[in-house]
Write a structure and sequence with these properties.
The structure is a homodimer. By secondary structure, chain A is of the alpha/beta class. Chain A has 15 helices and 12 strands. Chain A has a 6-stranded parallel sheet, with helices on both faces. A 4-stranded parallel sheet of chain A has the order 7-6-8-9, sandwiched between helices. In chain A, helix 5 packs across helix 14. The radius of gyration of chain A is 26 Å and the shape is elongated. Chain A starts with 8 loop residues before the first helix and ends with a helix. Chains A and B meet through helix 4, helix 5, strand 2, helix 6 and helix 12 of A and helix 4, helix 5, strand 2, helix 6 and helix 11 of B. The first copy, chain A, binds a DNA duplex through helix 2 and helix 4.
Chain lengths: 344, 344
DNA sequence: CTGAAAGCGCTTACAG
DNA sequence: CTGAAAGCGCTTACAG
């Protein structure tokens, strides 16, 4: 494809009657230039539709002002994932505000492919979203590139990560439902390998135990679920529906909203009254929940804070600031809606 | 921030005992090299953790293998927008498959800012998502950069755009509801400035007219809506609820799913039976719809096809292929679910 | 305040 | 098959 020749600095320097160095100084805003020269250069740039070449600049400054964001997920909803999407929106927004552009990559096979690409692109830093294997972290470390993790799990003490305080959130969920008078709990718990799911469950169960309710006593039934999707929630509920009704559980807690919505849909399809017969409480505070009928009560995840701070922290890392926290935790709060409290 | 010195080609050439030129040839895979030399170079690269510098390469080849995607939207849900998110997921996937990385930008003010950034980054091509002002198009044109538009509207005959066949989709919606026996239609129509909303409405009304039903005869009532969000759908329905019930409309069609969901939620909150009393039909086929209770009948938008083809077409444009279509249309089909047909 | 020169890390004709 | 050289479009000390 033939393109209109992109006039470079040399050309505008020629037109303005100055040297490349001087033209560079006024275009980049670094260094001195007399008002009169400045004027001439700017005019030439304007006239020639000059666009600075960021690639060339990056080559010499060793700074691209580009960030890489990689979302590790096996299944298709990636950017359009209701929670990750919110976080990514915020990352884009915060990056823009700080002058960074972002490369967005997804990785379905937890491979090193996307990471390699971004390394070659010489991004200034990396944001890794969702769970990821240790090999990815080790790989990134090897290249001494600033990076951090969002909403993922790792036992590597070196890596900076931003997460919700899921255990406390789980406890708040238990407390809230208990306060509403519930004593028989049904729980659908997402994959234990995933930090957030397992901590939410732990927090929930622990608090109930403090309140005198346990699995052993039959007051709590936990159904493990290998995935955390809507369909899985639906299927889990379908499979255990008769037990569910038989033992008179009055509250359903799930470790995320998608599971809750799936399970709730099954219940609604079967004509169960929510919340009159069963109260339902999710976790994540995704948009869908608010829109559902009945609207879904949930526990918040501060997607805005996480996205915003991820960029801020990474920026500090890039600029070489020391003493950055390794772990940033966000508080989770119960949002009361129709699925637990009825009509608003 | 001090980084481990990134060994360049020169260094690995030195270690392998060959010239930079030769090292370049084996690393890039372009040009000859004896098996023995190849071996030595590759080993040196391995040993020194060599990562080719894509920035330097781009500078000389004038090809970045980067694509820019800009989503023009005023309000926050951008990447996390249920329809755009799906399209973007697909764009990312298709780009990856063709060896492109993508810069994702959002633009809330319909400004030239994001476009400028990407121009400076020397992306190989641009995908513009959603409606956008003429000035943006004119601006991009000026720089002779390959670009195309997705899901937007323009009367500029030069610009390649990929859209749904919304008019036919609207007609199919009308036909479907009519076939179900409905004769009194209530319609909530999104912003007329937006191509898809206006065409869907046109197609819907036109088909009904052919079937003998019109606004004048009182068989169809159209409520215009300045926005196309869930909340707006809810509010529109709320405002017109008494009329809605009074005149016995049995079918509600909206020009997208979000409006449908909002309106449906209001109806459900008010105890209206769906679909027994009112059938509801949306448009877009977003995930939420299938998850809702009752699940929302809708008309499809081929997000997968649009995203995939956008990248394919742009790739062809970049490679200078001629005779590319200016307009690619995707068929829309009715998806029958509970909100029109009851329990599955 | 301004210019000449070197260099960022590659690729690509061109000789050999 | 391999190497020397030029050059991509900038920035940045360094002189002046």
């Amino acid at each position: 494809m033939t393109r209109k020749p992109n006039h470079g600095l040399r050309e505008i320097a020629r037109v303005a009657g100055v040297s490349k160095s001087t033209a560079s100084r006024v275009i980049s805003g670094n260094g001195y230039a007399s008002a009169e020269v400045k004027e001439r250069v700017l005019q030439a740039a304007e006239a020639l539709h000059y666009k600075p070449n960021a690639v060339a600049r990056a080559m010499v400054t060793k700074r691209t002002y580009n960030l890489g964001v990689i979302v590790f997920r096996e299944k298709p909803p990636i950017v359009s994932h209701p929670l990750y999407g919110k976080i990514i929106d915020e990352i884009l927004f915060a990056s823009e505000a700080r002058g960074y552009s972002v490369f967005l990559k997804t990785d379905r096979e937890m491979s090193l492919r996307s990471t390699d690409f971004l390394l070659e692109q010489r991004v200034d830093g990396l944001i890794l979203v969702s769970r990821l294997q240790k090999n990815v972290i080790d790989y990134v470390k090897k290249f001494h590139l600033p990076y951090l993790m969002v909403n993922g799990s790792t036992d590597d003490p070196d890596v900076i990560h931003l997460v919700s305080n899921d255990e406390t959130g789980g406890a708040r969920a238990a407390e809230y439902l208990y306060g509403l008078g519930h004593r028989q709990f049904f729980v659908i718990a997402g994959p234990v390998e995933h930090r957030s799911h397992s901590l939410r469950l732990t927090g929930f169960l622990r608090r109930l135990e403090q309140l005198g309710l346990s699995e052993q006593s039959g007051a709590v039934r936990v159904i493990p679920s290998p995935e955390s999707s809507f369909d899985t929630g639906f299927q889990r509920m379908e499979k255990h529906f008769s037990d569910f009704r038989k033992y008179g559980y009055t509250a359903l807690f799930t470790t995320n909203d998608m599971l809750a919505l799936g399970a709730m849909k099954l219940l609604l399809d079967r004509g169960v009254q929510i919340p009159q017969e069963v109260a339902v409480l999710g976790y994540d505070d995704i948009e869908l929940g608010r829109m559902y009928s009945p609207s879904l009560s949930t526990v918040t995840v501060d997607a805005v804070g996480i996205g915003r701070d991820a960029v801020e922290l990474l920026d500090k890392l890039i600029r070489g600031e020391a003493d950055l926290p390794k772990l940033v935790e966000y508080e989770s709060y119960v949002v009361k809606r129709q699925s637990t409290e009825g009509k608003e």
